[in-house]
Design goal:
Blueprint (H helix, E strand, L loop, with lengths): L3 H13 L21 E5 L2 E4 L4 E4 L14 H12 L9 H13 L5 E5 L2 H16 L3 E6 L15 H5 L10 H4 L2 E5 L3 H11 L3 E6 L15 H11 L3 E5 L12 H5 L5 E4 L10 E5 L1 H4 L18 H14 L4 H22 L4 E6 L2 E6 L7 H5 L3 H12 L3 E2 L8 E2 L6 H20 L1
Parallel strand pairs: 3-13, 5-6, 5-7, 7-8, 8-9
Antiparallel strand pairs: 1-2, 2-3, 4-10, 9-10, 11-12, 12-14
Helix pairs in contact: 2-11, 3-11, 7-8, 12-15, 14-15
Bound molecules: ligand KE4.
The site of ligand KE4 has 21 residues, from helix 4 and helix 5.
Length: 430
């Protein structure tokens, strides 16, 4: 499987685009080698410019829960395109999508559509600061909420790989407003509140971490954070950009029965087009302009094409049995991988919630960023390339989630587990 054309394109790209990519983690710095340039996706597969096909578990970092180029999305987009691409005016689709999200996510009475997860979390934090008239934010080490200044404090995802604890360019005064606590550390949250009680505007958390690899919350963590935020009159913001519509129709808040004050959404919401949202109670959301004084805006927010793809996606997900199917697929891959790790005596674990999972090597458990960072990153890189050479495309980073979709069929999963066994056999031989 040559990749000469990808290499050529990457050389050209680096001359005109920083790092050759429009988002750092696509540069494969964590696994080495030249990233493959993708020409098209089809259901569970992607194809690169050199004509190689891969079973795709990257799923564009989460949005493609239906798989690539789902026929219903393609048809709906073609129709929407005929009518134009953007009007800078309200459209019916935005109302329908807002109604559908409010129906599915019980904590959301009103929402605002934006163009990315970053915009969603950035805006939710501004709103929380306005509502509470406080400035400090509590976040968790390894959680990534997009690249807004105040949130790039020991973020996970791409920044974790670049091992930049705080990105240059973020004023120290901004970082000083952000308190960073280990994930799953209830006493750490208690201490942060005790020390800053009347100045914390909000706690923002990925209810299931996806950006230091998948890390589920401990059973007491989310209820405790909910209780502490309420006790200290701070808002609880669930960043469900990954988990929204991924782990349950109503996201992680439905799965764990913990109700945040604000929710941030993205990825699946747009069905593969640029769309994010943030929402919560009417009381909080009505502070937003033009209803209230908190300014937030966007030329292409609620764009008709993105909204069309989002509506089709959410409606497809609302047919019965979808989340059971995704759970079964996830379990099959997890159990297959774990059996092979044992068979070839390769130390590692699979952290999984539903159809999002991460393989961590050389560790027995991963409950927070510090434990995640102890994993064997070199072995992960060998795993990544070993699977890629066998036609299976995992996320190019040990600190990301792999995603299954409704397009991954039983044969695809068997092929994936078999590819893993072939790699493990080779790896065990050393
Ligand atoms: P975007 O601005 O990239 O749409 O969303 C930011 C964001 C917010 N919250 C969570 C929980 C997220 O996972 C993300 C973005 N995730 C990364 C990787 N997991 C996207 C990939 C990339 O940065 O290229």
């Amino acid at each position: 499987m040559g990749f000469t054309i990808s290499k050529e394109l990457f050389k050209r790209a680096r001359k005109k685009i920083p790092g050759g990519v429009n988002s750092p983690v696509r540069a494969w710095q964590a696994v080495g080698d030249s990233p493959r340039f993708i020409t098209r996706g089809e259901a569970a597969y992607v194809f690169d410019v050199d004509g190689n096909g891969y079973l795709d578990f990257l799923a564009s970092w989460g949005p493609l829960i239906l798989g690539h180029a789902h026929p219903k999305i393609v048809t709906a987009l073609k129709e929407a395109l005929e009518a134009g691409t953007t009007f800078g005016a309200p459209t019916k689709g935005e109302v329908e999508l807002a109604e559908l999200v409010c129906e599915q996510v019980a904590s959301i009475e009103k929402l605002r559509l934006v163009n990315s997860g970053t915009e969603a979390t950035m805006s939710a934090i501004r709103l929380a600061r306005a509502f509470t008239k406080r400035n400090k934010i509590i976040k968790f080490d390894g959680c990534y909420h997009g690249h807004a200044d105040g949130l790039l404090a020991r973020a996970g995802s791409g920044v974790a790989n670049l091992s930049l604890p705080d990105s240059p360019g973020v004023p120290p005064s901004f970082a000083a407003e952000t308190l960073v606590i280990p994930f799953n550390d209830v006493s750490g949250v208690e201490a942060a509140f005790a020390k800053n009680s009347d100045s914390v505007a909000a706690v923002i958390v990925e209810p299931i971490c996806g950006n230091m690899g998948v890390i589920p919350p401990s059973s007491e963590f989310l209820p405790a954070v909910r209780k502490l935020a309420r006790k200290h009159a701070a808002l609880l913001i669930f960043d469900e950009v990954i988990t929204g519509f991924r782990v349950a129709p109503g996201g992680a808040q439905e799965l764990y029965r913990v109700t945040p004050d604000l929710t941030c959404l993205g990825k699946i919401l747009g069905g593969g087009l640029p769309l994010g949202a943030f929402g919560g109670s009417q009381e909080i959301m009505d502070l937003l302009a033009p209803e209230g004084p908190v300014y937030q805006a966007g030329t292409l927010s609620g764009n008709p094409l993105a909204v069309t793809a989002g509506l089709v996606t959410l409606r497809e997900l609302s047919r019965g049995g979808v989340y059971q199917e995704l759970e079964e697929k996830g379990r099959m891959v997890q159990e297959g991988f774990e059996a092979i790790l044992r068979k070839y005596d390769i130390k590692g674990i699979v952290n999984r919630v539903g159809s999002m999972l991460t393989l961590f090597f050389a560790v027995e458990r991963v409950r927070d960023a510090a434990e995640a960072r102890r994993c064997d990153k070199e072995r992960f890189a060998r795993f990544f390339h070993g699977m890629l050479s066998r036609g299976v495309y995992f996320p190019p980073s040990p600190f990301e989630a792999a995603f299954l979709s409704l397009a991954h069929g039983p044969n695809d999963l068997e092929k994936t587990v078999q590819a893993f066994e072939d790699w493990a056999k080779e790896e065990a031989r050393g």
